[in-house]
Amino acid sequence: MAIEPKTLRCVRLRWWIRARKTVELPSYKGSTLRGALGMALKHSCCAARQRPCEACLLRFSCLYVYLFETPLLGESPQDLRYRNAPHPFVLQIAMDGPLRLDPGALWSFDMTIIGRAVQWTPYLVMAAHRMGELGVGKGRGTFDLERVVSLDAQGNPWEEVYADGMLRLPEKALPLTDGTPREASAGNGTFTLRFLTPVRLVSQGNPVRVPEFSVLLATLLRRLENLHRFHGEEGGAFAVPFPDLMEKARSVSIVENRTRWFDWERYSHRQGRKMRLGGLVGEVVYGGDVRHFEPYLSAGRWVNVGKGTSFGLGRYEVRDDTEGE
Fold first, then answer.
1. Cα 39 to Cα 152: distance, rounded to the nearest angstrom
2. Where does residue 53 rank: exposed (0-12), middle (13-18), buried (19+ CB within 10 A)?
3. Could you give the CA distance from residue 302 to residue 317 in angstroms, rounded to a whole number?
4. 9 near 172, Cβ under 8 Å?
5. What is the pTM of this model?
6. Which neighbouring-strand residues pair with 318?
7. Distances, alpha carbon 77 to alpha carbons 45, 80, 217, 239, in Å
8. How many CB atoms are located within 10 Å of the residue 76 CB?
9. For residue 232, how many other CB atoms are within 10 A of its CB?
10. Contacts of 80 by beta carbon, 8 Å cutoff, 6+ apart
11. What b/e sequence results for 206-230 when a residue is b if at least 16 CB atoms lie within 10 Å of its CB, and e otherwise?
12. CA angle at residue 278 from 276 to 281, to 5 degrees?
């Protein structure tokens, strides 16, 4: 397959479903779909039906645990900084209000699968089939999985992964941070980040309400580093000039902050409680040259940034405001 040794690559997939029975999803579709997909996969592959995952002897060889309750590698000081390892997938779903699919209606959602997890794509397809049979959302609406295609860097259809009952492993993958920043211009210029879903940044244990660029970039670089460490091929390394990038990032200023805090709640069946998950949405214009920070910001468009990325939080777009001048 296209994932070469000592690299980290991803596959972007678009999933097309057709409603069998009316499907109703809330505004926070990613949370609902992530939970339903995880339950469907666990229902299909769990060998110890009555045992909680934390106490299961198969925990470190279980596909469900690897994808949805990703364990830390060990008890090193580096691992102990985190409660969990990053999940090797991201749902890319807009929070654009509730969704109702009447029988026969077609709808699609996107997912990024990262690193070694790409080899398990057929099992995620199987889980999506099972999710359609079990039902999802209000009233447990059922659906059929009709088609899955991979997308290229521009978001265009690339490969047929599943259609008409035929399933194939993706052969093409996109590199994450495989390249160098473009040469910066003499002037500073400006660039804009548009937060499409709530971006949950934390600094010194507190939620970030003003999106200073240095905090955002540090969070993104740590995420990319951890994705390499937990899900890259054995022997891979995340070679990034962290001190140099952070020095440049601290010189980037906020020119205009058009973000706002957006609060929402989700119920976690695994934890048995409601979780409040606020974050920043909107746009922020930065003063500085975005080319210093490529390709890291480009990679972040596919893997998101901050907390709650697996069910779609932390999604953003980047615009270089100096292009075309």
1. 29
2. middle
3. 10
4. no
5. 0.88
6. 193
7. 32, 5, 23, 20
8. 9
9. 23
10. 72
11. eebeebbbbbbbbbbbbbbbbbbbb
12. 155
Which pLDDT belongs to residue 224?
A: 92
- Which residues partner with 143 through β-bridges? 19
The tens digit of pLDDT for each residue in 58-116 reads 888 899 999 998 887 655 555 556 567 899 999 999 888 899 999 999 999 999 999 99
In sequence order, the β-bridge partners of residue 238 are none
Cα 274 to Cα 53, 266, 267, 271: the distances in Å are: 21, 6, 4, 8
**Inter-residue contact 51 to 65 (CB < 8 Å):** no
Domains, the chain, ordered by start: 9-175 (3.30.70.1890), 190-320 (3.30.70.1900)
* Residue 100 backbone dihedrals phi, psi, to 5 degrees: -125, 125
Q: Is residue 94 within 8 Å of 196, Cβ to Cβ?
A: yes
Torsion over CA: 35, 85, 150, 155 (sign): positive
Question: How many residues are there in the chain?
Answer: 325
SS3 letters across the chain: CCCCCCCCEEEEEEEEEEECCCEEECCCHHHHHHHHHHHHHHHHHCCCCCCCHHHCCCHHHCHHHHHHCCCCCCCCCCHHHCCCCCCCEEEECCCCCCEEECCCCEEEEEEEEEHHHHHHHHHHHHHHHHHHHHCECECCECEEEEEEEEECCCCCEEEEEEECCEECCCCCCEECCCCCCCCCCCCCCEEEEEEEEEECCEECCEECCCCCHHHHHHHHHHHHHHHHHHHCCCCCCCCCCHHHHHHHHHCCEEEEEEEEEECCEEEECCCCEEEECCEEEEEEEEECCHHHHCCHHHHHHHHCCCCCHHHCCCCEEEEECCCCC
Q: What parts of the chain have a pLDDT lower than 70?
A: 1-7, 50, 73-83, 178-188, 234-238, 265-276, 323-325
Place of tokens 């509730």: 98
Single-letter amino acid, residue 100: R
